[in-house]
Amino acid sequence: MGGGPNHVLCLLPLPATGDTAQAIERLKKRFPDVKVTYQSVAFSRDFEKQALEIPKGLWKDVTVLVTLFTMPPSTSDAPHLELVQLYSAGSNQVANNPIYKETDIPIATASGVHGPQIAEWVIMTYLVHSHKFKQLYELQKERKWGDKRDESGINKVRDGVGLRLGILGYGSIGRQVARVCKAMGMDVIAYTATPKDTPEKKKDHGFIVPGTGDADGSIPSAWYSGLDKKSLHNFLSQDIDILLVSVPLTDETRHFLSTEEFSVLSQGGKKPAFVTNIARGPIIDQAALIKALKDDTLAGAALDVTDPEPLPEDNELWELPNVTVTPHVSGAGQSYTDRVFQILELQLDRKAKGEPLINVVNRKRGY
């Protein structure tokens, strides 16, 4: 590999079997001169304790670390580290680690691997709401046929043609949701932190699963941007029927959506919108969300993330009839690990050739 990495250490909460084993073998065959070490770690939220359980000697010659959250306890533990490839689309779970805070070692995410499966989850949960599936399922459990259209509310179903989807955070996930919804006849508008006012800025420069997404950014009929309330409210006031929340969690986006935003989105309750959150729970003020769902300011919500996680058993969201809650699983799928290792192979290729890496976290932005 020339000047490329010589030791790839994979620390993931997965057994080295099945799809994972196949991905590792493919990596070894493609890069025979690279040492590859794989170690399964427990899935734990105590990141610091977990890091201490890794033998210090394992870090000493590592040049590329593939991880979800297990990082060297200090910069001196991994003196040859040149790249951290995360197994997740977000990087907030490692933001307090010394490698993140005290070095400029590139940290790259797995952004791009989640688009297809999360887009399907977004469509599935919206159709559960719009097509009154919960009501129909209850009728099925009761073995009732008859003329139940009024009882189920099926006569009020509206298809997607002509609806407007607002995507708050037009990354790889938002782009694939846009692609699918556009095919359903919806209009799509996009919102980003910084302006995308040229064709080059609208492009997706990260990892793209072939046949998916919006590589050139041509799908949205309009683009909006900014992190200030005025800009956000301008976007939310654009007659949106479905709002997809897919921005990263940063200090600027914590409680980005609250009572005032829900009111703007739904025109003071005159046109209740549907909110879908596949990003992070704290982006939404959850108490304000519950209130808006109960007083019909919002039509409904699909939540794969909550605040906190796991969602407590006594939380009202579990029981609200217009809400679907799932346990942070929308990005899971059989192809996940394979796609992460595709990104890793691409990174090793680029690194050996001296080319720019993809999906690198901008530490100032936090993603």
TrEMBL record:
CDD domains: 2-Hacid_dh_5. It comes from the Eukaryota. Keywords: NAD, Oxidoreductase. Residues 124-203, 228-330 form the D-isomer specific 2-hydroxyacid dehydrogenase NAD-binding domain. InterPro entries: D-isomer_DH_CS1 (IPR029752), D-isomer_DH_NAD-bd (IPR006140), NAD(P)-bd_dom_sf (IPR036291). Pfam families: 2-Hacid_dh_C. The keyword Flavoprotein does not apply. Gene3D superfamilies: NAD(P)-binding Rossmann-like Domain (3.40.50.720). This is D-isomer specific 2-hydroxyacid dehydrogenase NAD-binding domain-containing protein.
